[in-house]
Amino acid sequence: MTSFKKTARLLLPICLTISGLSLHAQRMRYTFEKGLMGSPFKLVFYAQSDSIARVAANNAFKRVEELNEIMSDYRDGSEINRLSATSGSGKWVPVSKDLFDILAISQDISAKTRGAFDATLGPVVQMWRRATRKGIFPPGDEIRDALGRTGYAKMKMDAKTRSVMLVQKGMRLDIGGLGKGYAAEEAIKELKKLGITSAMMDAGGKIVLTGPPPGARGWNINVSNGSDSLKALQLSNVALATSGPTYRYMEHNGVRYSHIVDPKTGIGLLFHVRTTVISPDGTVADALATAFSVAGIEKSKKYLRKFKGSKVWLVEKQGDRIAEWNMLD
Ligand code: AMP
Ligand code: MG
């Protein structure tokens, strides 16, 4: 169910003059929330009437649902799972524009982070999900087998025919590392179509912002290092994504493994605490937060040079101490 809340009256009236008449188009703040893609999605924006706000929120959430049909790895019939089922067939499979675009961004980030980000990790992610459910650590040969069916170089893409080929049998795509950022960007596009220029879409910690609220310098966003440090930022026209094992992890013999996997070992991260990335684009911010979590501070500093306009706050354990790389100060 979508919940709907009108929280405040207008802050700054906008004056429009039509045929000599002066109209005060008052913008009010609206908040809508809905559970989507396994996370709470929160939409906040300013609009001139309840009816525009309702249509806008409906369109935005409908777009996210449409994307979920394509990208969900939980649904057998999703486009991405149908594509995975063709792996090893030697066939080029035509895909929707959304799926092609998201996979193209993913491959670009994989190349620029030397495979720290990898959308072909599906077999490994699935293995860890089963292991977490059962509470049994997977044996070494199972990890090796799953890992043997991954590798972003085994996914070929052809822009001319908008087709994808998964070279090896048993491959499985998982775009959980950037799907929410993409969905947030697309939801915001729906609002823009209706002339809404001040909006925030928080897709489970992957946030896309347009213009600031009326009269404000930006949206108030709190970012944390996962423990003792909190930073209040005022941001607009930018995206921000956070990755961390705060809620989702697997515990074995008192050791906590993140749901983010190191593509080299096939094992959940052990030393990662939290990564926040600010980027011009939501899909990129989301993918980079995941990629930099894997790469760690030193390598991420190198990779970041390839992503203009991005900033990072990365926290990781180094032995007994916590190390931080914070560009947000
Ligand atoms: P995020 O919260 O954006 O960091 O996404 C985490 C999700 O991305 C996991 O639940 C997996 O579905 C997927 N994933 C895990 N490890 C990786 C990785 N190294 N590269 C890309 N996606 C990953
Ligand atoms: Mg991510």
From TrEMBL:
InterPro entries cross-referenced by the UniProt entry? ApbE, ApbE-like_sf
Signal peptide range in chain numbering:
1-25
Enzyme nomenclature, EC number? 2.7.1.180
> Which keywords has UniProt assigned to this entry?
FAD, Flavoprotein, Magnesium, Metal-binding, Signal, Transferase
Entry's Gene Ontology molecular function annotations = metal ion binding; transferase activity
Q: Tell me the cofactors it needs.
A: Mg(2+); Mn(2+)
Sites where the protein binds Mg(2+): 177, 286, 290
- Does the record's keyword annotation contain Metal-binding? yes
Asked if the keyword GTP-binding belongs to this entry, the reply reads no
Question: Entry cofactor note text?
Answer: Magnesium. Can also use manganese.
Name the enzyme group at the top EC level.
transferase
Recorded catalytic activity of this chain's protein? L-threonyl-[protein] + FAD = FMN-L-threonyl-[protein] + AMP + H(+)
- Family note: Belongs to the ApbE family.
- Please state what the protein is called: FAD:protein FMN transferase
Originating species:
Dyadobacter sp. 676
The upper taxonomy is: Bacteria, Pseudomonadati, Bacteroidota, Cytophagia, Cytophagales
